[in-house]
Amino acid sequence: MNAVDTRTKGLELTVHHTADLGAGTLSSYLGANYNTNTITAVNPTSVLRAEGIDNFLSRRERLFIEGAAPKSKAILRTNYSVGRWDAALSLTYFGAITLGTFSGASVPDQQYRPRTAVDVSIGYELSDTLLLTVGGLNVFDAMPSPQDANETDTNFTYESVQMGFNGPAWFARLSAGFR
Fold first, then answer.
1. DSSP alpha helix (H) spans, the chain
2. Handedness of CA 37, 43, 47, 53 (dihedral sign)
3. CB-based burial label for 170 (10 Å; 0-12, 13-18, 19+)
4. Where are the beta strands (DSSP E) in 69-157?
5. For the chain, does the N or the C end have fewer beta carbons within 10 angstroms?
6. Cα–chain center distance at 40
7. Burial class of residue 162 in the structure, from the number of CB atoms within 10 Å of its CB (0-12 exposed, 13-18 middle, 19+ buried)
8. Burial 118-151 (b: 16+ CB within 10 A, else e)
9. Residue 179 in contact with residue 128, Cβ under 8 Å?
10. DSSP string covering 64-79, please?
11. Domain boundaries along the sequence of the chain
């Protein structure tokens, strides 16, 4: 059903910089955004209108449409390469969000505080065409704010609204390039 009209407004910024540093090259990237999403109109069918607009689009659903993604997010990524070695560090900031509850006004809204996840990796060029990289995602185990499990879509203490809730992930990757 396509009965809800929305408008998204915001500002996005990206900056990329590369510079020689010592024996290697430092590459940095910053990406940040601030966006708002608002419901501008609700146009249910006559059948849904007869059921009542709040049954069709409850306060919880309105909050989800307008705020299920953080209004602000930023990524700072740096990469340092020297010889065959490469190291990367990435910080990802997820802004706060508010979601409604299934129980309605009798239970306070779910509040998710801002979070920052840290990713790291180190790579080595085994040859002109092979790169071995090892690293971790969310290495400090940043998690969304815990919630009442009775009020989440997952029936679990966490929801993946800002970010995932699986904790850190470690990896080894072998990349092959063809020239």
1. 46-51, 53-56, 59-67
2. positive
3. exposed
4. 72-82, 85-94, 97-99, 110-112, 115-125, 130-137
5. C
6. 25
7. buried
8. bbebebebeeeeebebebebbbeebbbbebeeeb
9. yes
10. HHHHSS-SEEEEEEEE
11. 8-176
Q: How many CB atoms lie within 10 A of CB 87?
A: 16
Integer Cα distance of 128 and 177 in angstroms: 8
Answer for the pair 135, 88: CB distance below 8 angstroms, yes or no.
yes
Q: pLDDT digits over 82-113, tens only?
A: 999 999 999 999 999 888 877 777 788 888 89
- Global pTM reads 0.82
CA distance 160 to 168: 14
> Could you report the per-residue pLDDT of 25-61, keeping only the tens digit for each?
999 999 999 999 999 988 877 766 676 666 677 788 8
Query: Which residue type is seen at 128?
Result: D
